[in-house]
Design brief:
The chain has about 400 residues and is of the alpha+beta class. It folds into two domains: about 110 residues, no CATH class; about 190 residues, no CATH class. The longest helix is centred in the middle third of the chain and has 23 residues. It has twelve helices and 14 strands.
Length: about 400
């Protein structure tokens, strides 16, 4: 049976006023026939999946109450990583699963950001340089913990390629255990205090990343337009005139607290539908935080960005995840290859009521008993007309033409 959608997803679901799929439904076909940067196969599939998510195209399951006969219709999800509807449920499931697998220690939220001057190189090299970012940022903290505190730490890393306005802003969010297993004794050892030498970490991160970059250049694996090695090294020197950006939030008391905090960074889509403030014809508006402007409470000012679909679509679609690329990765003690003693694991695994306050479609509202599965129905007519648009990129003539 396919993954299905609940009728309600808690308090936040009721606050949504606009669906991103509706905006794409209104303008996507027109956009494809216009002159613009080519749409990739991954982007086309992501949009097609999002447009049919929780519709008759993917089908629906029906559940019935044995006592009163009340029937509930539950539409199937597309389960695409780009879909804002599916990402919320995926994030919550991931958060609940991870809480029981983390150590009973304080954890910190860390962010490692690449200089914007590297964005053209990253666009050309795709997965290769994104892999380097995730690996070197995690290695920076692992090495620091080993040499500074003689411990092995656990890291959960999440790649983001976008900023608040959905422009290119490539960085890794990390959940870092503020302590770990001591080398030699094998005992759980917390890190006391929150002080770190930021300049040391920044330099270490930069050197690790640039060493990999140079190695790729020397081996001929780096795609670039540099005239020669001197020009390439000169470019690296130019981006080192300012320190690279690393930020660590204060330690949080337990894994449950940090998971609730960073859950919104994990598997969520690029643009949350809760931030959409208006869809007006060919224009869409959404809220974003302006971190360059701080209010009297020392918080970033919230602003509204309004874009025509011709500018909005390519800005958003550049962040469709690359095929088979793992956005969430685990390092150190949280690597899948590592087994942590149960006595060191988090025991605070109570469910977060605020996030999981759902009305289940499987419980009868009137009888308060669990409904039973009845049948699944697919709208064959609609399915035949549109299923290729989800999985077959050759269905659209203009799409083919733009790639000829």
């Amino acid at each position: 049976m396919s993954e299905c959608a609940h009728k309600k997803f808690g308090v936040r679901e009721e606050e949504k006023k606009f669906r991103l799929a509706d905006f794409f439904n209104a303008h996507w076909e027109t956009y494809l026939n216009e002159e613009h940067k080519p749409v990739t196969i991954e982007q086309y599939r992501a949009v097609s999946a999002m447009r049919v998510c929780r519709t008759a195209v993917l089908g629906a399951d029906y559940y019935v109450c044995d006592d009163c006969g009340d029937v509930t219709e539950v539409f199937h999800n597309c389960r695409n990583r780009f879909c804002p509807t599916c990402s919320w449920g995926d994030t919550m499931k991931w958060a609940e699963k991870m809480k029981s697998q983390m150590m009973d220690l304080e954890h910190r939220h860390a962010t490692f950001t690449l200089p914007h001057a590297l964005i053209p190189l990253i666009k050309r090299n795709g997965k290769d340089l994104l892999n380097v970012l995730m690996r070197t940022s995690a290695d920076t903290l692992k090495d620091w913990a080993k040499h500074k505190h003689n411990i092995k730490i656990g890291i959960i890393s999440v790649l983001h390629t976008y900023g608040e306005t959905k422009d290119n802003h490539i960085h890794a969010h990390m959940i870092v255990s503020w302590g770990g297993i001591e080398n030699g004794t094998g005992k759980l050892k917390p890190i006391k205090g929150e002080y770190v030498r930021y300049d040391f970490l920044k330099n270490k991160f930069r050197c690790k990343f640039e060493d990999c970059l140079v190695a790729m250049y020397d081996s001929g694996k780096l795609k670039h337009d540099f005239r020669d090695r001197i020009a390439f090294l000169s470019f690296l020197k130019s981006i080192n005139t300012t320190k690279w950006i690393i930020n660590l939030e204060p330690p949080m008391p337990n894994p449950s607290a940090v998971i609730r905090y960073i859950g919104r960074y994990s598997k969520r889509a690029c643009l949350s539908e809760y931030k959409i403030t208006e869809i007006d014809g060919a224009y869409i508006s959404f809220r974003y935080k302006d971190y360059k402007t701080i209010d009297q409470d020392k918080k970033p000012v919230e602003r509204i960005l309004r874009l025509h679909y011709e500018k909005f679509f390519p800005r958003l679609l550049q962040h469709v995840p690359l095929r088979y690329f793992r956005l969430v990765r685990y390092y150190g003690l949280y690597s899948t290859k590592t087994v942590i003693d149960e006595e060191y694991l988090n025991k605070d695994i109570e469910q977060n009521e605020e996030q999981w306050n759902m009305e289940s479609p499987f419980e009868c509202t009137f009888c308060k008993k669990e409904k039973v599965y009845l049948y699944t129905i697919f709208d064959k007519r609609v399915r035949e007309e549109r299923i290729k648009a989800v999985f077959d990129v050759n269905i659209h003539p203009s799409f083919i033409h733009k790639r000829a």
